Amino acid sequence: MSKVFILVAEDDADDRYLMQTAFREKGYSDRIEFVENGVELLRFLETAETADGGPEFPGFILLDLNMPKKDGREVLRDLKQHPVFKRIPVVVFTTTKNDAEIKRCYELGANSYVVKPTSFESLLSVVENIRNYWFQVASTP
Fold first, then answer.
1. Structural domain harbouring 59
2. Which single residue of 46, 62, 94, 125 has CA 20 to 30 Å from 17?
3. Nearest residue to 60 via CA among 88, 79, 92
């Protein structure tokens, strides 16, 4: 069985750094891959392979909504319409806190919607909760 990892789609370099630091500070040694936009995310998944040649997909995707080239909404729609990628849990992880946007993301197939915390201490807690849920509580295909 392949090692499970996390794919993070985030265009802001500071947010990527904070996310990586939060996982490290919590003591997690998970493989975390970062992409900067939706085009890179889809390309990453399309070319994902293990050493034995089979596909290796993340345990879940943290998806920012506001990215260049292809935003999170478009990527979410594409992922959830794809015959294989639709099985990967997608956690929308964004600064947008708007009821209409939240509803739209769930309609597009988001598995969860989390508003980015405003402090690093809160980020530590959110990272732990998301990771524990998708790797220890939830059952995924």
1. 5-137
2. 46
3. 88
Question: Measured between alpha carbons, how far is 6 from 132 in angstroms, rounded to an integer?
Answer: 12
How many domains does the chain divide into?
1
| pTM over cut 0.90 | no
Residue 10 sits in a domain of what CATH number?
3.40.50.2300
Judge contact between 105 and 73, C-beta under 8 A: yes
pLDDT per residue over 75-97, tens digit each?
Answer: 999 999 999 899 999 999 988 88
**What pLDDT digit, counting tens, does each position of 62-75 carry?**
999 988 888 889 99
Residue at 27: amino acid letter = G
The pLDDT of residue 122: 92
Q: What CA dihedral angle connects 55, 60, 63 and 69, to 10 degrees?
A: 0
